[in-house]
Write a structure and sequence with these properties.
With about 160 residues, the chain is of the alpha+beta class. It has a domain of about 100 residues. The chain is built from five helices and five strands, in the order ααααββαβββ. The strands form two sheets. Strands 2-1-5 form a three-stranded antiparallel β-sheet. Strands 3-4 form a two-stranded antiparallel ribbon. Strand 3 and strand 4 form a beta hairpin. It is elongated, with a radius of gyration of 27 Å.
Length: about 160
């Protein structure tokens, strides 16, 4: 029996030494973790104070976009834009929420569209949306990140 114990003990030591050698390095672990992260999705969407307390993510998202749409509509005075562009009922605006909570608004038109004075629309957006209320940035693993989305701005409602 004692000889059997020595063999078992030696096997155990040998096996445990092999196990120690298989522990991945910090760099390997980091690389594996980085590959597992979906960088196209955020953990928390941008938000405003009135929507932060909502637990249901779909309802919170809806609350945020309704708030944002309302604020943009109020500030832009769609009637003046409708006068500039009578053939359009909606313009699309790319909204960028930066990690430091500042926003940028950029009109989006088809690339072949030369009929629109994009500089004029851009100027209107910058002027009228300059004092936009604070938006909390999106979060990825607890870190504020940049997010972008397209927001339709209704010029005419029938």
């Amino acid at each position: 029996m004692p000889k059997m114990r020595k063999i078992s003990l030696l096997f155990l030591l040998f096996a445990s030494c092999q196990y120690i050698e298989r522990v991945p390095s910090k760099e390997q672990l980091l690389q594996e973790e980085m590959k597992s992260i979906d960088w196209d999705q955020v953990d928390a969407l941008p938000s405003v104070a009135g929507c932060d307390t909502i637990k249901d993510l779909a309802v919170q998202k809806n609350c945020f976009f309704e708030y944002l749409s309302r604020q943009v509509q109020m500030r832009l005075d769609p009637e003046s834009l409708a006068e500039l562009y009578p053939e359009r009922d909606t313009i699309e605006v790319k909204v960028t929420v930066f990690p430091d909570s500042h926003l940028s608004f950029e009109p989006q038109f088809a690339k072949d569209s030369t009929a629109y004075d994009t500089a004029k629309i851009d100027s209107i957006l910058r002027t009228r949306l300059a004092d936009f209320p604070k938006i909390n940035p999106a979060l990825k693993r607890g870190v504020p990140v940049k997010s972008q989305f397209i927001l339709p701005v209704i010029l005419k409602s029938e």
